[in-house]
Amino acid sequence: MPAYRVIGTSPARADAWEKVRGRPIYAGDLAVAGMLHGRIVRSPYASARIARLDTRAARALPGVIAVLTAADVPRNELRMELPGRMAEATAGAVLATQPALAADRVRFQGEPVVAIAAETPEIAAGAADLVEVEYEELPGVYDPLAALDPSAPRVHDGGNVLRRWHLRTGDVARGFSEAAVVVEHTYRTPFVDHVYLETETGLGWIDAEGVLVLRVSTQVLEHYRDVAEILQLPHGRVRLEGTYLGGGFGGKEDVTVECLLGLLVWKTRRPVQLVFSREESFIGHGKRHPYVMRYRTGATRDGTLTAVEAELVSDSGAYAALSPWVLLYSLVTATGPYRVPHVKVDATTVYTNNPVASAYRCFGSIQTCLAYEGQMDALAATLAMDSLALREKNFLRKGDALATGQVLETEPRLSETMRRAWAGLGEPRSPRRPTRIGRAVAASFTPYGRMCWTRDSASAWVGMELDGTAVVRCAAPDVGGGQTSSLCAITAEVLGLDVAQVVAVGRDSHFTPRAGTTTATRQLLMSGNAVLNAAREVRHHLLAAAAALLEAAPGDVELADGHAFVRGAPGRALTMASVVKGAIAEGRPVQALEKYDAPSAPTIDPLTGQGKAFNDYTFGTHAIEVEVDEETGRTRVSRFVACFDAGRVINRASAEGQLEGGAVQGLGYALMEEIALENGVSKNPHLVDYRIPTSLDVPPIETLLLESGDGLGPFGAKGLGEPAMTPSIAAVANAVSSAVGARVTQLPITAERVRAALGSPA
To answer: Is the omega angle on the peptide bond into residue 477 within 30 degrees of 0, that is, cis?
Structure first.
């Protein structure tokens, strides 16, 4: 492995001490003189017609400045702007997009109906109570399988089927005829919430140039376009500034406060602050898609996989959001990291009157992992075969083709991640009644970066200051994963600087080069490579300038520790400041704006799934030990090991943090989290009722990072943010199944479900 000075180490992030001391300014901490306060009136019903809407009493309340309805929105539709190839990929989809404010019908509990701006939060709340809305309840559909019935109530006029994808390779009938054993199970996952500490919030105003400025908590600076579209303004008249993010995990990828806030600011011509309450956050923003997954898997007597047949149905909720692409991730990952010659997968996402479902960490690949890894353990039990040996026999290797036909160009190292994770659990322990102990692994593969046909790109600017320090400008929102620090580390490595000598500036749609969304585990790949390209261009000019000043060949000059020196002659050296000044004096550029374009490929065939959907994948394994109380059904995870091939670690502490965070979030998903719905209405929209793991629920987590150097990111890095969570729920389910002696197929794995699996009365 090449020697690096900065890459792979753990320098403190630039914002580390600020966060430890509680000093960062988040979107909700901002205030300006004359600021109004926003309030949203939301539907209490999941399916209803707005029969009457009367805002006169609210408008008459002293201190109320604006009470806005759908009639006040210039273009009342949050449309998705799709690049050509992406639009092609969704051909045939019924893309129902959500209005900013409901006009005549509401389709989910929490849908915005009225937006209010007032002088104080109390007045805004009082005005909301004075808004009179008369609803006429309509029949709704609340189960994704029921939504497939042609006679089910229609959520939208075009029908309840939003999108179908299909995957076909080989002859699945032949595959099952060749199988000695076939296992079949149905797996179910629920709606779950992101539960970030900071709810959706923002502050907006109109600046001296008449530009609408929104400073919001978001993962996507490009939402300024959505605001411009609903207000019918030129895109350049809207500016979006990101802030420190108090958690996102995909929940702040979609539009949250942006359009409503922009509407209130533009209509009142005054600054407005809009902060969602915790209940609003629970019922108002997108959730993780629930799935029903029916799997049949066949294998020969020696464990060779012969066929997989699967039917995936996901619940999109009331609007399309990102459901077609979440479903595509599920389709591509449906067979897991295994060689399967005969495959048939049918995937469907449907509209219901449940909460809108959209992006959430792992984006469709985590649900299928629960299923394909559950099937592998079920096969191993049926064959009386070691589950690790069964996996090892069928793991994908370099040169193998996925079910989509894409050939793997690098070695996944799956066996190594699995064996090292398993070894990390240590020696098995003997249980004492009433405790049972179960152990299991789950392997996974997860895309990083967007789909190939989107023609993804990112830009970045790197420039030197006269004192020899560097500045990076890149509009890549840092969602807490250390994205900004990674860009600084890349620049420091290339330019021979200390990380403290590099500052990254971003989070502004007007003044930083476009880098795209902080989603899809794409920023290290995209903005990281853009910064790498820009830094290398600057390095080229600095080396030329230093060579002239030192009277040496450029190839003999090295940059390190903030100096330029002649290799083999450390006494012949210049400070970086001297090099920069010398370059400027000679008319050489000391800055560069560069771009990175991800490799692209045609859209996959929607009827067969054949083609190259993603450029690369991150592979890894979780190994877990659980303790199950026979009497109560209570499950406790006692040991947890995560092992992944990171390609190349940029910041070791950040990479380890991603593995730990993914593990913890997965434990919540597996064991306790679920949005309880009754006919589409949430029964637990508060933290007192919605449980997430605390420090008392989390075991010590061991993280193991392999470095193949085979990734497409800077220096061979791969993305870790989402892959770090993917195998978690499957590993927990397999470990609990091992402990109770029965296959657990539904999340969350509650004490009641464990007792049922044990054969005890609930």
So the answer is: no
Distances (CA, A) of 296 to 310, 338, 376, 394, 444: 6, 15, 11, 16, 19
Clarify whether residues 209 and 223 are in a common domain.
yes
pLDDT-derived band of residue 762, with 50, 70 and 90 as boundaries? very low
The SS3 of residue 474 is coil
Instruction: Give the pair of three-digit tokens for residue 449.
Output: 């970066």
The answer to whether the beta carbons of residues 353 and 108 sit under 8 Å apart is yes
Please report the pLDDT score of residue 91 as a whole number: 61
- The residues pairing with 296 across neighbouring beta strands, listed in sequence order, are 184, 309
- Alpha-carbon distance 584 to 147, whole Å? 66
Would you place residue 134 in the very low, low, confident or very high pLDDT band (cuts 50, 70, 90)?
A: very high
Pick the more confident residue, 278 or 759.
Answer: 278
What percent of the chain is predicted at pLDDT more than 90? 94
DSSP state of 70: G
Per-residue pLDDT at 585: 97
| Mean pLDDT computed over 142-154 | 98
Contact between 306 and 397 (Cβ < 8 Å): no
Strand duo 563-566 + 305-317: pairing: unpaired
| Nearby residues of 209 by Cβ (< 8 Å), 6 or more positions away | none
Six token digits for residue 156: 């939208």
Q: Are residues 447 and 320 in the same domain?
A: yes
- Give the closest residue to 311 by CA, choosing from 292, 335, 329, 332: 292
pLDDT in tens, 375-399: 999 999 999 999 999 999 999 999 9
Dihedral-angle region of residue 507 (phi above 0 means left; psi in -120 to 50 means alpha; beta otherwise): left
| Structural domain span for residue 234 | 27-138+200-275
* CA 290 to centroid of chain Cα atoms: 16
539 in the same domain as 474: yes
Q: What is the per-residue pLDDT across 34-72, written as a single tens digit (0 to 9) for each?
A: 999 999 999 999 999 999 999 999 999 999 999 999 999
Asked whether residue 534 falls in the same domain as residue 576, the answer is yes
What are 186's strand-pairing partners? Answer: 294
Q: What is the pLDDT of residue 92?
A: 65
Helices and strands, counts by H and E, the chain: 19, 28
Q: How far apart are CA 708 and CA 163, in angstroms?
A: 37
- Residues 638, 746 share a domain: yes
Beta bridge pairs of residue 213: 205, 239
Listed residue (305, 301, 300, 314) closest to 336, CA to CA: 305
Q: Does 157 reside within a domain? A: no
Distance between CA atoms of residues 102 and 47, nearest Å: 12
Same domain, 518 and 581: yes
Residue 554, domain CATH = 3.30.365.10
Q: The CATH number of the domain where 260 resides is what? A: 3.90.1170.50
Mean pLDDT confidence for 557-571: 94
Round to whole Å and give the CA distance between 190 and 188: 7
Q: How far apart are CA 509 and CA 355, in angstroms?
A: 30
How confident is the model over 172-182, as pLDDT tens digits? 999 999 999 99
Find all residues with CB under 8 Å of 29, minimum gap 6, and list them: none
* Average pLDDT over the chain, rounded to an integer: 96
Q: Cis omega before residue 434 (within 30°)?
A: yes
- Domains in the chain, number: 3
Select from 597, 628, 650 the last residue of a domain: 597
Residue 502 placed within a domain: yes
CA trace torsion 69, 70, 71, 74 (10° rounding): 120
Contact call for residues 354 and 392 (beta carbons, < 8 A): no
